[in-house]
Specification:
CATH superfamily: Galactose-binding domain-like
Radius of gyration: 14 Å
Order of helices and strands: EEEEEEEEEE
Number of helices: 0
Largest sheet: 6 strands, antiparallel
Distance between the termini: 19 Å
Number of domains: 1
Strand order of the largest sheet: 1-2-10-4-8-7
Number of strands: 10
Shape: globular
Strand content: over 45%
CATH topology: Jelly Rolls
CATH architecture: Sandwich
Length: 117
């Protein structure tokens, strides 16, 4: 973790490029559904974006939008299983800073939190 006043919680994680970098999250959802994952990230001056896997399957259609001058948001929709799911954020072509992973459940679970142990 690296202190950064521009990060949402005052800290960010630096993720190595290529296959050397990975952040892994085990999250629990109450029912099988399609969820929306958002990863807030910053490249370090050279274009790059994270690769996202859900339960071992790479998610291909990642939409990226700017979130201020320094940050971007990568957003994907992916199928989630009832119970625990493994979400991996892998390094892009180059080093990235990761601010957060946000997971929003589908309409079937509106009002029910998605949790990470």
């Amino acid at each position: 973790m690296i202190a950064d006043t521009k990060a949402s919680n005052g800290y960010k994680a630096r993720l190595a490029g290529g296959t050397d970098g990975r952040l892994r999250f085990d999250v629990h959802v109450p029912a099988q559904e399609v969820g929306t994952l958002r990863v807030r990230f910053a490249d370090l001056g050279l274009p790059a974006q994270p690769r996202i896997k859900v339960n071992g399957a790479a998610v291909a259609s990642i939409q990226v939008r700017k979130d201020g001058p320094d940050w971007s948001i990568a957003e994907v929709r992916a199928p989630l299983l009832r119970g625990f799911n493994r979400i991996d954020i892998d390094g892009g072509a180059r080093v990235l800073d990761i601010d957060y992973l946000q997971l929003d459940g589908g309409a079937a679970n509106a009002g029910h939190p998605v949790t990470a142990p």
